[in-house]
Design a protein that fits this description.
Helices cover 47% and strands 12% of the residues. It contains 20 helices and 14 strands.
Length: 427
């Protein structure tokens, strides 16, 4: 009887051990704490032209992480942040998404972005030293990191080779300055055919910001406490940009740009030159007229060389239901491998240092090497904690300058006053 009882107990204990072992094998957790069950995370972007590149990155990630699937959601730029705002309000942000510098502070301060400070510090895949310092700084708020740099852009002078050839004018190059740009714009203007030498709309990043910094002016002081629009150098730069349309008549007016965008005018041969960001390459490459007739050069210089640059970052929702999987995807996108994939697909100039060449090679018909070359003297697009507010004033007031409702002096002084009031509220 005792032997029989011992046998029963032994069998029971063995069975319990086996059940425990089986339970461990079927656990939904892997050794690193993430789920071994298939999980789908969402990745929101706003540029359809970049979707193939982002899909290629996601495919490479999925190959390394077979239990994680990435669903890419594309929303147009015009609707992207409206949709993101609604999702944030409803607690349904995408797991991972593109973040722009204009909105970063708002989302970081409101607790919508995952704090990845420690994750980046302990990562074996990501090193922030591999990115330009300005782009890294753009992912930090109050000492905490809320994203990883994705790409960057600079501004170049796009020009119509056919129009230059017809006028027997040499193409723009690194020797061009403000005077040369003004001179050639006049020569290429033919008012009888509604053809203009240069497109000078009321546009910050693809317009007057570049001229301001070339003239040694500022948009905002380094300590973010004072507007630079009331400085003589900034006013002079604004006046220079405005004179193309108001004084020289070598640019369409703001009213004309309201009817037809300056990009559309360039794409149809109505303007010979224009300042356009590197993000326009995909669109220009897809346009038969631009592809056959146009190219790009470094931006002309003023008192100094300067072009503004900006960059996107990838961020994770602080309320993601799949935080570890989302972080793993974000981490992978910060690797050299992912950045090279982005470059090879022609999506954008990758943020990772030294990976721009495949992006240049992707569109050999254009002189794209000028864009990364200009990074050496580029100035980060000005921003601050209250940028969303003062940039509204900037756009509204300067639009009145371009439509001649205000003089440059009046508009810049008004803008500086409004900006300073807003900046005084920063914390």
């Amino acid at each position: 009887m005792k032997k029989s009882l011992k046998k029963i107990i032994s069998v029971a204990l063995t069975s319990m051990v086996m059940l425990t072992t089986l339970a461990g094998c079927s656990s939904s957790k892997t050794n690193n704490g993430t789920s071994s069950k298939p999980v789908t995370i969402t990745y929101a972007i706003w540029d359809k032209n970049q979707e193939p590149g982002m899909r290629a990155i996601a495919d490479a990630f999925e190959a390394k992480n077979p239990t994680i699937k990435v669903k890419i959601e594309v929303t147009t730029w015009d609707q992207y942040f409206t949709k993101l705002e609604a999702a944030a309000t409803g607690g349904a942000l995408p797991d991972v998404f593109w973040m722009h510098s204009n909105s970063f502070v708002k989302y970081a301060k409101s607790g919508m972005l995952m704090d990845i400070t420690d994750k980046v510090k302990n990562s074996k895949l990501v090193n922030e030293d591999n990115f330009p310092k300005g782009l890294v700084d753009s992912t930090i708020q109050d000492g905490k990191t809320y994203g990883l740099p994705k790409d960057y852009d600079t501004i170049g002078l796009w020009y119509n080779k056919t129009m230059f050839d017809k006028a027997k004018i040499p193409y723009p190059d690194g020797t061009w300055d403000w005077k040369k740009l003004q001179e050639v714009a006049k020569k290429l203007t033919d008012s009888s055919k509604d053809v203009y030498g240069f497109a000078a709309p009321e546009d910050a990043q693809q317009g007057y910001y570049n001229f301001i910094y070339q003239n040694k002016g500022t948009v905002i002081s380094k300590d973010k406490k004072k507007s630079g629009f009331d400085s003589a150098a900034t006013k002079e730069a604004i006046q220079y940009d405005l004179d193309f349309s108001i004084k020289d008549k070598s640019s369409p007016t703001q009213q004309q740009f309201a009817d037809t965008s300056f990009a559309a005018m360039f794409e149809s041969g109505k303007v010979a030159m224009g300042l356009f960001g590197s993000w326009m390459v995909s669109e220009f490459k897809a346009n038969d007229y631009v592809k056959a007739n146009c190219n790009v050069a470094v931006i002309p210089q003023g008192k100094q060389k300067a072009t503004v640059y900006n960059g996107l970052q990838n961020s994770v929702s602080a309320k993601s239901k799949n935080p570890e999987q989302s972080w793993k995807f974000l981490e992978f996108m910060g690797t050299k491998e992912a950045n090279i994939i982005q470059a090879e697909k022609g999506a954008a100039i990758p943020a990772y240092k030294g990976t721009a060449q495949p992006w240049i090679d992707y569109s050999k018909g254009f002189n794209l090497k000028v864009f990364p070359e200009m990074l050496s003297y580029a100035v980060l697009v000005p921003t601050s904690n209250t940028a969303a507010k003062w940039k509204e004033y900037e756009n509204d007031i300067l639009k009145k300058v371009w439509t001649k409702e205000l003089t440059v002096e009046e508009g810049c002084n008004q803008l500086a006053k409004q900006m300073n009031q807003v900046l005084a509220t920063e914390k």
